[in-house]
Amino acid sequence: MAHTTVIPVPAMGKRNVNAFLLLGRRAVLVDTGIPGSGAKILARIAEHGIEPGNVSAIVITHAHIDHFGSAAELRLATGAPVVAHVADLGPYTTGRIREPYLPTGRFGRFLDRLDAFHEHAEPFRPDLLVDGPTTLYEHGVNARIMPTPGHTAGSISVLTDEGDLVAGDLVATSFLGMAHRRPANPPFHDDPAGNLASLRATLALKPTTLHVGHGGPLDPARVENWAAREQHRLERLAARGRLRTREEVRGIAQESTSS
Questions:
Q1: Domain of 72: which CATH number?
Q2: What SMART domains does the record tag this protein with (predicted)?
């Protein structure tokens, strides 16, 4: 069986926003950057000998603008089907993220105030909707899609047979990748406890390397240690009644508006 290689494709900055190219018998692109990133991503993959027509599928890890922003553009350019989880279908078909964001800390609260994080993307309907584990063998890479909900309801990760985990925003590195080997939360999570449960479940599969949307790559042992500390932090927040999901926050806001 052909080896599957994971190649980072920077879509913004050196590591601030990453897409990834999976190279096996064919090529699969994971994530598409912010709106307007299509030409840059195509130029990056061309450096590895991949022309638009060589891309056999485009996998979107979740419905945030910096991951699906150029999906429609790249589908048109490559002719490749877009694969995504059904639970995030709404944002894909409207081109709008679900709001409000739920910041994971001060950096997230800062980013939430920036217009760029509330942009609209060109809407699209994924060609292949998944709702459970799904292989990518038919698209020419030895890898499988795994649902990893929490960051968003429809978040997915891709695990190659060699053990490389393309994790989207399951975990990140500090300050949108600027401290590129230090595990951290991304700026936002819809459900922090649910995301951490997904992260720990994927770590139990013993991946060799985590490739993340912001920064990276990350060593699994270091992520394990961080996840244990994060578990304690979330438990303390929950005990004080300060741990909420995005849906709970939105419900409170609606109640306040209607009262």
A1: 3.60.15.10
A2: Lactamase_B (SM00849)
